[in-house]
């Protein structure tokens, strides 16, 4: 089978890798180099147990802060509210308890065995050093602050996440001695892990596709090549490319390609930022997350990465340097002694988010030959490998045990 995969981010690359391993003739297409977009700048977290959707009961209580606090972890510029409102309405509706439970179950199914799936790819490519399985550490100032997130943690535990409470600064520092902030409760998740270089990870997977005979081309896709209700390939700036199947894995840009086919998807970019400190003067063994700021402080091969914030603003608006500056404040709440000299500018990327926190994975019923794998939101790295294994099995066999119905694009009407 000849398969074109649109998008050389980590989700598309993992799809290409699994398809190539099962014998497909794979061509990857992207306007940039492998992983050079959003995938290069994530926090590196691999969090299979993160099954709680972003929209939880009580989410409406956060709206006043979004409107009035420019330092809030989630920010929507006033000028963007009219465009964001339809998405936000669907987001709030998805916070109903029954929907939350269904979403958590679907995420748990999709993310099951995520670490093993990542190891499967990296072991084949001789790059297991990219993954550290030393857990993740969330920090709260006290039990009252933790209580605000208790529902999310309970949902995660319901689906098998193992957590350990660290009471007091001494217990926290027994795990991470350099922490000096005013957080007094730690939530340690021993079974999660992290990638120490997301860009190198993407390049390794791309090289694996080439090793198995696939192509990874820097060529933007302009649209689909169709006949009747069949997708026969894609149109690029240099001409037409035909295939037996096309996989759309273009992240936050996927909705633009689907629109000419009459498919509307409420896909929003939740713009995230990071700053890199090559020598912060602190030592970390795992990602540390001050929960009130939703920021990840992650040790990387190239230094310390502070990643986070959620900013609505679409795909075309210029980055906001102030949002990146806030990340250094987040860092100093946990590590006041951290050095920020040598900061390497800042980075911004587009997390592809759907209002129900579920990605679109599987075939498009109205268009034979078209498959989707996009919309993983904050779990793109985590979900990339297990999504790819599931999609490749659905396309080439053997038929997967998991039902793809919860992730269907048709759920949006």
Describe the structure.
There is one protein chain. The protein has 413 residues and is of the alpha/beta class. It has twelve helices and 21 strands. The strands form five sheets. A six-stranded mixed sheet has the order 10-2-1-14-21-20. Strands 4, 15, 17, 18 and 19 form a five-stranded mixed sheet that branches. Strands 7-8-6-16 form a four-stranded mixed sheet.
Name of the top-level CATH class: Alpha Beta
User: How many H/I helices?
Assistant: 12
Main sheet summary: 6 strands, mixed
Question: Quick check: average pLDDT?
Answer: 96
Q: How many β-strands, per DSSP?
A: 21
CATH architectural name = 3-Layer(bba) Sandwich
Question: Stretches where pLDDT falls below 50 for ≥5 residues?
Answer: none
Strand arrangement within the widest β-sheet reads: 10-2-1-14-21-20
Distance between the termini: 30 Å
Strand content: 25-35%
CATH topology: FAD/NAD(P)-binding domain
| Overall SS class | alpha/beta
Basic shape: globular
Tally of structural domains:
1
Radius of gyration: 21 Å
| CATH level-4 homologous superfamily | FAD/NAD(P)-binding domain
């Amino acid at each position: 089978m000849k398969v074109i995969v649109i998008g050389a981010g980590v989700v598309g690359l993992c799809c290409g890798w699994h398809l190539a391993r099962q014998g497909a003739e794979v061509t990857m297409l992207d306007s940039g180099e492998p992983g050079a977009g959003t995938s290069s700048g994530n926090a590196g977290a691999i969090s299979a147990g993160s099954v709680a959707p972003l929209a939880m009961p009580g989410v409406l209580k956060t709206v006043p802060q979004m409107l009035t606090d420019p330092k809030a972890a989630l920010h929507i510029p006033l000028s963007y509210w009219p465009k964001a409102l339809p998405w936000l309405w669907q987001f709030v509706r998805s916070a109903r308890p029954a929907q939350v439970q269904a979403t958590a179950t679907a995420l748990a199914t999709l993310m099951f065995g995520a670490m093993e799936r990542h190891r499967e790819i990296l072991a084949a490519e001789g790059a297991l050093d990219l993954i550290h399985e030393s857990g993740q550490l969330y920090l709260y100032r006290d039990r009252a602050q933790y209580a605000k997130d208790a529902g999310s943690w309970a949902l995660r535990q319901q689906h098998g996440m193992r957590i350990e409470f660290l009471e007091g600064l001494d217990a926290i520092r027994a795990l991470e001695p350099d922490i000096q902030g005013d957080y007094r409760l730690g939530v340690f998740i021993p079974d999660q892990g992290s990638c120490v270089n997301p860009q190198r990870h993407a390049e390794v997977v791309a090289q694996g596709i080439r090793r198995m005979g696939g192509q990874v081309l820097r060529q933007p896709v302009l649209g689909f090549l169709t006949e009747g209700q069949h997708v026969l390939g894609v149109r690029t700036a240099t001409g037409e490319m035909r295939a037996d199947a096309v996989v759309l894995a273009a992240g936050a840009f996927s909705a633009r390609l689907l629109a000419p086919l009459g498919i509307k998807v409420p896909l929003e970019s939740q713009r995230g930022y990071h700053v890199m400190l090559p020598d912060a003067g602190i030592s970390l063994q795992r990602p540390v997350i001050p929960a009130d700021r939703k920021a990840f402080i992650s040790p990387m091969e190239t230094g310390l990465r502070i990643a986070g914030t959620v900013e609505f603003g679409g795909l075309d608006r210029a980055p906001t340097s102030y949002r990146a500056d806030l990340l250094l404040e987040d860092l100093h709440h946990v590590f006041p002694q951290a050095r920020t000299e040598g900061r390497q500018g800042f980075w911004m990327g587009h997390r592809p988010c759907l209002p129900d926190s579920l990605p679109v994975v599987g075939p498009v019923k109205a268009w034979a030959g078209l498959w989707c794998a996009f919309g993983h939101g904050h779990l793109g790295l985590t979900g990339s490998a297990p999504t790819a294994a599931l999609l490749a099995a659905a396309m080439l066999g053997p038929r997967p045990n998991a039902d793809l119905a919860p992730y269907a694009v048709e759920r949006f009407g």
